[in-house]
Write a structure and sequence with these properties.
- By secondary structure, the chain is α/β, with parallel strands linked by helices.
- It is about 35% helix and about 15% strand.
- Strand 4, helix 5 (about 155-165) and strand 5 (about 170) form a beta-alpha-beta unit.
- Helix 9 runs parallel beside helix 13.
- It starts with a helix and ends with a helix.
- It binds pyridoxal-5'-phosphate.
- Pyridoxal-5'-phosphate binds next to helix 3.
- The site of pyridoxal-5'-phosphate has 16 residues, from helix 3.
Amino acid sequence: MRVETKLIHAGELRPRPQGAVSMPIYQSATYEYGGATDYHDIQYIRLNNTPNHTVLHAKLAALEGTETALVTSSGMAAISSTLLSILATGDHVLAHDGLYGGTSDFFTTDLPKLGITCTFVDANRPETWEAQLTPKTRAFYVETITNPLVQVVALPEVARFAKAHGLISIIDNTLATPILFRPAEHGFDLIVHSATKYLNGHSDIVAGVVAGSAKHVAPVKHKVDHFGGSLDPHACFLLHRGLKTLALRVRHQSASALEVATALARHPAVKRVHHAGLPDHRDHARAKQLLGGLGGMLAFELADGVAGATRFLERMRLPAHAPSLGGPETLATRPATTSHAGLSPQARARQGITDDLIRISIGLEATEDLIEDFTAALT
Ligand SMILES: Cc1ncc(COP(=O)(O)O)c(C=O)c1O
């Protein structure tokens, strides 16, 4: 099956439950004992194994091309449980210097309290990685498309390096989704998502996903089961419903974001546009070779700095001035005050996240209307 068909049919129950064409919500906390011999197989919502969970797991694994998948109560539940299933006191991890703010903060604030250390590396410079390895390095963590600067780092090299050095490679595929990039095909061991974003696509739930081999996902499920990070069946239903239109939405948003980025790059009030789809971007050739598009996000800086950024956010009419991304409505935010506010000013400066940077998540509106609105606000 091609990916569009998998979105509709993969994992669905056959025969259909009571003939229902759309998967019903099984709003039951517990189920009659079915002979399970392992605690983690007892059917109970916290153990992430009701009918709404198992159907979603099968669909998500089919989409990512992995043996199995697991939904969680948020993207951060997926990320923290994955890392804590691999890392123990004394361990060390490599991560790209330029991750989503919450993940970055988890590496720098939470893991050290457990005696786990992280070295941030430039995932664009493979020649620098070996020198950062220690005998206790266990994993290498990257994102497919970085947030908010829309960069694409040396992804196949990360997976190969991890394999060669016995590390587990982990990739956050939130911004690309399996429509644009399937990390397992490039050798990544574990894939995480904030399903809050494109996978659900409607700005109405918080959810996460972990996908990979059964060997790698089973320890994550144990952690999620014990930390209580399961996804509620009603949120499972909404995620399931949202997934069916993923390909249509992501392709529209990718094309629209590239058009908007091109228009912004031509406007005299704009100093710089960040989007690897633009031909003069450092990662353009790699992005074109590896990905089926760059997704719906872009970022830009204004010639007039923070004052200009503030005025732009006040004067734009269509976007909501709000964090998050991947929904049907266009959202605009300043990452220094929202998604990356948890980073120190020095860390933001090192990563190139200036105070005046505006991040836009392109929604499903007509591209022409967005360009007209942005142009009017800039003018
Ligand atoms: C790339 C990326 N990963 C993970 C997360 C965390 O996801 P959640 O908010 O669903 O916990 C986010 C949230 O913005 C994100 O942008």
